[in-house]
Design brief:
The complex is a heterodimer of chains A (161) and B (171). Chain A has 161 residues and is an all-alpha fold. Helix content of chain A is 83%, strand content 0%. Chain B has 171 residues and is mainly alpha-helical. The chains are: A mainly alpha (161), B mainly alpha (171). At the A-B interface, helix 1, helix 2, helix 5, helix 6 and helix 7 of A face helix 1, helix 2, helix 5, helix 6 and helix 7 of B.
């Protein structure tokens, strides 16, 4: 985080000393691009705030711990696709799931869809890729996450072959 | 019309949050707090990311990107896409504007899709976090399975989309 600020700061000043006009142009571009995407960001944040409320951690822990491991895997991948969480919240949560001896396969389905599939980032993604490609891309990512989960299941001996 | 509905809904949302805070309505307060938390964490990264994108756009020559990430680039282009993705801060929402500027500079679609996919799975801070909570074996399996699949699906997507003259917007 700090590195990001530092790098940006240094690059900005180097740029400013070499060519003032170009740097001002870069700032204008940055500002314009930012303004164009603000409505989509706002929509995304509204979705996030509601979804996080509807899926609190206790609920996730409770639902992933019950029943058949294949059903739980599907369930985990659906929750992971709908919700969004920064890594510093998601992985400690995954740690809690592990302590409750929830299979790696289920945890992987949850964390991998959480990262790869972005139903919540849809408003932003469609501004760049269009609705159709956004949907296709996310479906592909979902399939990849399921494959990862199945490989986890085999690798950790949770699925017998 | 569509925009009017959208703006009305956004206004209703914020009115709901504000009224909730006045009357201590728990549901609204919780949702409002979620909004603030995520908005703040995004505000920490997004302006900086856009300044970098702006600098990138004025300084990096189109030829450079075309040569390394364009139509005639080799497999090393995919390697660069993954390196770039592992150092991308924030999340997917930062990756899209970066993808748009890469597209504008002439990077090919298969590499851009690889970048977007890889941002989700191999950002360095996130990967370290994951390994410390779930073990290195878990992290390695995830990377070794997901990355090749991301690359292959991106190449297929790129081939199909090239035929339809697909463009990434946002420039």
């Amino acid at each position: 985080m700090l590195i990001l600020y530092l790098v940006t700061f240094i690059l900005f000043f180097i740029s400013f000393f070499i060519n003032r006009q170009k740097t001002i142009k870069a700032l204008k571009i940055a500002f314009k691009k930012f303004c164009n995407i603000v409505p989509a960001f706002l929509t995304m944040l509204i979705f996030i705030s509601i979804v996080i409320y509807l899926f609190p951690h206790e609920l996730i822990v409770k639902y992933l711990g019950i029943g058949n491991k294949y059903l739980s895997t599907i369930f985990a991948s659906l929750i992971g696709s709908i919700t969004i969480m920064p890594g510093f919240i998601a992985f400690p949560l995954a740690g809690i799931l592990r302590e409750q001896s929830i299979p790696y396969m289920v945890i992987s389905a949850f964390t991998t869809t959480l990262m790869l599939v972005g139903i919540i980032t849809f408003p932003v993604e469609k501004e760049f890729l269009g609705v159709k490609i956004t949907i296709i891309r996310n479906v592909i990512c979902f399939v990849i996450a399921i494959i990862v989960a199945l490989v986890m299941g085999v690798a950790f001996g949770e699925i017998g072959i | 019309m569509k925009n009017i509905i959208k703006i009305t809904l956004i206004i209703i949302y914020f009115l709901f949050i504000i009224v909730s805070f006045f009357y201590h309505y728990e549901v609204g307060e919780a949702i409002g707090k979620n909004f603030l938390t995520f908005a703040l964490s995004m505000l920490k990264i997004v302006p900086v990311a856009f300044i970098l994108i702006g600098l990138f756009e004025v300084w990096i020559k189109r030829e450079t990107i075309e040569k390394h990430l364009g139509k005639d680039s080799s497999w090393i282009g995919f390697f660069w896409a993954i390196i770039l993705s592992s150092t991308t801060a924030g999340g997917l929402y930062v990756a899209f504007p970066i993808a748009a500027v890469l597209f504008k500079k002439g990077a090919k679609l298969s590499i851009i899709f690889t970048y977007m996919g890889a941002v989700s799975v191999c950002r360095i801070p996130m990967t370290i976090f994951e390994a410390s909570f779930l073990g290195i074996k878990f992290t390695l399996i995830r990377l070794l399975v997901s990355l090749p699949l991301i690359i292959v699906s991106s190449i297929v997507m790129g081939r199909i989309l090239n035929k339809t003259h697909f463009k990434i917007k946002g420039n």
